[in-house]
Amino acid sequence: MHTTNKEGKYSYFEAGEGTPIIILHGLMGGLSNFDGVAKYFPKEGYKVVIPELPIYTQSILKTNVKAFAKWVKDFITFMGFERVILLGNSLGGHIALYHTKMYPEKMLGLIITGSSGLYESAMGDSYPRRGDYDYIKKKAEDVFYDPAVATKEIVDEVFQTANDRLKLIKTLTIAKSAIRHNMAADLPKMHVPTCIIWGKNDKVTPPEVAEEFHSLLPNSELYWIDKCGHAAMMEHPDEFNRLMHEWLKKASI
Fold first, then answer.
1. Phi and psi based region of residue 223 (left: phi greater than 0; alpha: psi -120 to 50; beta: remaining)
2. How is residue 9 annotated by DSSP?
3. Where would I find the Serine aminopeptidase S33 domain in this sequence (predicted)?
4. Is residue 166 part of a domain?
5. Distance CA 63, CA 57 (A)
6. Statement: the pTM of the whole predicted model exceeds 0.90
């Protein structure tokens, strides 16, 4: 994606100076391409940091939402940040939410888009058809409102993941963990300022999931993007940046 810094056990991209925005990608790295955010926010006085989450590299016992949230906290400490803004898509949103629950003192603000955490069929429910490229292609296209966004490169990456036995086992482990770590009971107690940006046409985490997040999170704002699927920051990067920046200004973060 970009030049990545490697230090100790961490690999991460960073750009800009200022208030840190840490971006947490989803299960499929290629589907969570935050180039738009990484280019826009450093010019606006923020430091954008995108760590590579250890989704497929931790032991199976640490392949769960809670362990990933702890990993994020350790990464924040390692980077020397006092408090951060977390932005997460899909599984990354769920990890960001869980981190917010566990370590509210680390949080300036939270932005979620197409996040899991409330809706159980958000992940991995139909993975096992491994060898079927057309099926995987259709699944990848379903992530977006405009199927053309699912380039051959993206489909190939998903296909490769689905055909890697260890990655498949970990994907299913994470899917089970996401269901186990349902956040419905926790959200009303979470008062960190939260921005919810959602695609109106998200088939993976449908619009009613965003409505539910908004109703349960006491300090949240909800923004919609039309003609947009599960990865808003990829499909409509300019609109996504505009809404996110508008919210950051409004929340004085």
1. beta
2. T
3. 21-236
4. no
5. 9
6. yes
253 residues of the chain, pLDDT tens digit each: 456 899 989 999 999 999 999 999 988 766 568 999 999 999 999 999 999 999 999 999 999 999 999 999 999 999 999 999 999 999 999 999 999 999 999 999 999 999 999 986 555 555 556 678 998 898 889 999 999 999 999 999 888 888 898 988 898 899 889 989 999 999 999 999 999 999 999 999 999 999 999 999 999 999 999 999 999 999 999 999 999 999 999 999 9
- Strand 5-7: give its sheet, edge to edge: 5-7, 10-15, 46-51, 19-24, 84-89, 107-113, 194-199, 220-225
Q: The domain containing residue 198 runs over which residues?
A: 5-121+182-251
User: Would you say residue 149 lies in a domain?
Assistant: no
Asked if 73 and 61 touch (Cβ cutoff 8 Å), the reply is no
Domain count, the chain: 1
- Using CA atoms, how far apart are residues 13 and 129, in angstroms rounded to an integer? 33
The DSSP bridge pattern shows strands 46-51 and 19-24 to be parallel
Distance CA 3, CA 86 (A): 21
In whole angstroms, give the CA distance from residue 70 to residue 169: 21
